[in-house]
Amino acid sequence: MTINELRPLDSDTPDGRGTACTVTLCRGCCCGTDKHPEADHEGQLRQLLNGLGANARVRTTGCLDSCDFSNVFIVQPSAQGRALGGRPSWLRQVLTPELTEAIITWVNAGGPGVAEPPSILREHHLSPARKRRTAAGG
What we know:
This protein has one domain: Glutaredoxin (3-Layer(aba) Sandwich), CATH 3.40.30.10. It is built from four helices and six strands; from the N terminus they run E-E-H-E-E-H-E-H-E-H. The protein has helices spanning 41-52, 79-83, 97-108, 130-135; strands spanning 3-7, 21-26, 56-61, 73-76, 89-91, 125-126. Strands 1-3-2-4-5-6 form a six-stranded mixed sheet. Strand 2, helix 1 and strand 3 form a beta-alpha-beta unit. Helix 1 runs parallel beside helix 3. The longest helix has 12 residues, at 41-52. The two termini are 14 Å apart.
């Protein structure tokens, strides 16, 4: 799996996880591709980068082996969120600007462990297999 940092932050912790939330977008064999021609994948990435500003790290990665659920996003908690018990949240079928905006709103409010996700994201929760979580760093 290749991970591309689109917006690294200067406030990384020694373990490399950073102090802010990290949003990882799968852009592998199915996610972010023409499997979903109705979705504007580049627009989605721009929306995420513009909406989060310097509040979060944004990364893309290769296939997360969750192709049946594309587009897959992982929202990893900030240092504060981890301290409060937050865990990485995997989201499936994130294909609309409204869902992307809900992720932006949640992360800007503090993300996992700090703020509850918007209700629109509840039906998009994904419980990945342990192998997938380990490979993604979550």
